Amino acid sequence: MGDSAAESIPFPLGSEPAAGRETSRSNSPLAVVTGATRGIGEALSRRLAAARFRLAVVGRDTDRLRTTVRALDLIAGSGRVFGFRADLTSPRSTVDLASELARRFPAIDVLVNNAGALFSPRQTSVDGVEATWALNVEAPFLLTGLLLEPLARGGSGRVVNIGSAAHRTGRLDWDDLERRRYGAWGAYAQSKLALLLWTREAARRYANLPISFNVAHPGFIRSGFGQTSARGAWRAVLTVAELFARSSAAGATTPYFLATSPSVAGVSGQYFSRCRSVPPSSRARDPEAAARLFDRLLATLSSVAPGLWTFQR
Ligand SMILES: NC(=O)c1ccc[n+]([C@@H]2O[C@H](COP(=O)([O-])OP(=O)(O)OC[C@H]3O[C@@H](n4cnc5c(N)ncnc54)[C@H](OP(=O)(O)O)[C@@H]3O)[C@@H](O)[C@H]2O)c1
């Protein structure tokens, strides 16, 4: 699944100052968006760029990232969009990405953990982790837990995790979270349930920090979903289903609302659909499962990510 190293790419090519640390707080807010090279993440990045955000966009493919940054540059203005390459199925690559982001940006106002996929057949990352669990659950957990300090620095950081109504059919298989007995939908639904659980637990454990943690369901959206990660029957099903789906721009509406609206300042630990807080499934509201999962992820990932979720004010 590609290289594991994260890499910052200077854009526009050659004209950005060398990859140094920003020394003063810019007037315009900074948003980090993963999975910005396609679909909902790309549409969201466009809206944020138009709203005068500076953007750090994350993609895994250098050429697509280059194209995305050039397009965003036209909206945001030159020198306000930064591209970072990382394979988010690799915990090591995600940790490198977090270090690079923290090194470059003292303050991060919005982190959108958008990159996600359904995999068929089962795949593993370069580190040997099942890809759905690695990309949809571990990567956002790592990125968020390693960026608490820059997120807190601006005084009102927002973490927007892109979930899915699919969580309603999800169950956590505690003995087999990486699903050796694999079904693509079961692994995907489990991952979105897990994302909701740890997000709600983060909101509870870190309520003293000036950071909100919420989950957005984008709706049923026509995007690149499944086009690279699914083969065979699942690819066919998703291709046909997308004929009935809404546009990627529509899918960006609720994430954009959570990233920017004054009406949700200070709201944390909630699940949003169509720009409204709605109750997630009863399994996603289980506080014991949330705490257990958070501790499990910490135990699994702390060895590759020293300092994970340790920042306190
Ligand atoms: N589409 C829907 O109906 C729907 C519904 C509910 C929830 N969602 C969620 O919405 C989010 C965005 O999905 P989408 O529909 O916009 O899908 P998409 O069009 O396939 O976009 C996914 C993005 O994630 C990136 N990505 C995939 N694997 C990666 C990796 N290993 N490392 C780094 N980046 C990676 C992709 O990069 P490349 O350009 O390199 O492929 C792409 O930019 C996902 O979390 C998905 O689960 C989607």
Let me know the average pLDDT. Answer: 92
Number of strands: 9
- The largest sheet has its strands arranged as 1-4-3-2-5-6-7-8-9
The major pleated sheet works out as: 9 strands, mixed
What are the low-pLDDT stretches, counting only 5+ consecutive residues below 50? 10-19
Output the CATH class name.
Answer: Alpha Beta
Question: Which H/E pattern describes the elements?
Answer: EEHEHEHEHHEHEHHHEEH
Secondary structure: helix percent: 25-40%
Number of DSSP helical runs: 10
Attached small molecules = NADP nicotinamide-adenine-dinucleotide phosphate
Features:
313 residues, alpha/beta, Rossmann fold, nine-stranded mixed β-sheet, 10 helices, 13% strand, binds NADP nicotinamide-adenine-dinucleotide phosphate
Give an overview of the whole structure.
The chain is α/β, with parallel strands linked by helices and 313 residues long. The protein contains ten helices and nine strands. Residues 10-19 have low confidence and may be disordered. It is globular and about 50 Å long. The protein has one domain (7-219, 246-301): NAD(P)-binding Rossmann-like Domain (Rossmann fold). Strands 1-4-3-2-5-6-7-8-9 form a nine-stranded mixed beta sheet, sandwiched between helices. Helix 3 packs parallel to helix 4 (131-146) and helix 4 runs parallel beside helix 6 (184-205). It binds NADP nicotinamide-adenine-dinucleotide phosphate. NADP nicotinamide-adenine-dinucleotide phosphate binds next to helix 1. Residues 35, 37-41, 59-61, 64, 86-89, 114-117, 135, 162, 164, 218, 220-221, 223-225, 228, 245 line the site of NADP nicotinamide-adenine-dinucleotide phosphate (NAP).
